[in-house]
Amino acid sequence: MALNPARIGHRYPAYRYEVSREKVREYARATGASEAQVPGETGDAVALPTFAASFTIPRGFSWAADPELGAHPALVHGEQSYVFHRPVRVGDVLVCTPQIDDIRSLGRNEFLTAVVECVDEVTGEPVVTSKATIIFFSRPAEADATAGADPVTGAGPATAVADEEVSS
Amino acid sequence: MVAVGDRLPERTVTLDQGWLIRYAGASGDFNPLHWDPAFAAGVSPTGGVIAHGMLNAGLVGNAVSEWAGGPERVRSLTTAFRAPCPVGATVTVGGEVLAVDLDTRTATLAVWAVLADGAKVVDRKRSRAVVALG
């Protein structure tokens, strides 16, 4: 099952995300941050870098439910990058726009690059850009093994067995 | 003074099911691959429950942030997920300075997360952090 290359450049509806103190604290603790890294109960606070995942993965994976893309559950999350234009702070209200950046074939696999641009709702300034590389396996046996899985909750950002082709 | 070859303090943690459940709740990623053995048996690359890639990325990101002197110093973080991380696995996180740019006052680090058997959960070859120098 091939992905539809006509979807390259497609933008999905934006969503809004409020950065709340308790979620930032919960995420810090869930990723093993030292107590010194967990923001306090009051005052200015910057989120740890991968907190961005809590509003981009799987929330920003709009492509998973796009009937025109043809995504299927035989996939892994191969790579994830965050570029911070400024730090994410408690109290930020972000407007996040998912977009398909690229679709490539390499051997029997397909690589989807999906971006989420997150900007400050008030000032419009860019805050963080998320870029996910999703590897779709086209081997029928693997597709069968995951048949029936929900494309979002059943086959989300799994840890990958990304092969060397990713680096080319 | 940060120099090429400087290393992050290594940290080793065992990611038991409790870690994965806490990460699911904190992140909103409730993919049953990370908590339901029956579901994982059919779809997991290991045949069992595996950790969220972003949980390992979080361990890496937190280590970089602490080393850099705070999360506001982290300019970018790229994590390449290579080997799956089974529930209960012991992961060692590290990083090494590859380059220092005195013009932009930034350092580029290779970062990684490896299992006890050497499996590259976050692959050093492609995983990078750029941090602002103090």
Mind sketching the topology for me?
The complex is a heterodimer of chains A (168) and B (134).
Chain A: E1 15-18, H1 21-30, H2 53-56, E2 75-84, E3 93-106, E4 109-120, E5 126-137, H3 140-145
Antiparallel strand pairs in A: 1-3, 2-5, 3-4, 4-5
Chain B: E1 11-14, H1 17-27, H2 37-43, H3 53-68, E2 74-80, E3 90-101, E4 106-115, E5 120-122, E6 128-132
Antiparallel strand pairs in B: 1-3, 2-6, 3-4, 4-5, 4-6
Which terms would index this structure?
heterodimer; A: 168 residues; mainly beta; five-stranded antiparallel β-sheet; 3 helices; 5 strands; 12% helix; disordered C terminus; B: 134 residues; alpha+beta; 6 strands; elongated
What does this structure look like?
The complex is a heterodimer of chains A (168) and B (134). Chain A has 168 residues and is mostly beta strands. Chain A has helices at 21-30, 53-56, 140-145, and strands at 15-18, 75-84, 93-106, 109-120, 126-137. Chain A is built from 3 helices and 5 strands; from the N terminus they run βααββββα. In chain A, strands 1-3-4-5-2 form a 5-stranded antiparallel sheet. In chain A, a hairpin with a 5-residue loop joins strand 4 and strand 5. By secondary structure, chain B is of the alpha+beta class. Chain B contains 3 helices and 6 strands. Chain B has helices spanning 17-27, 37-43, 53-68; strands at 11-14, 74-80, 90-101, 106-115, 120-122, 128-132. In chain B, strands 1, 2, 3, 4, 5 and 6 form a 6-stranded antiparallel sheet that branches. In chain B, a hairpin with a 4-residue loop joins strand 4 (106-115) and strand 5.
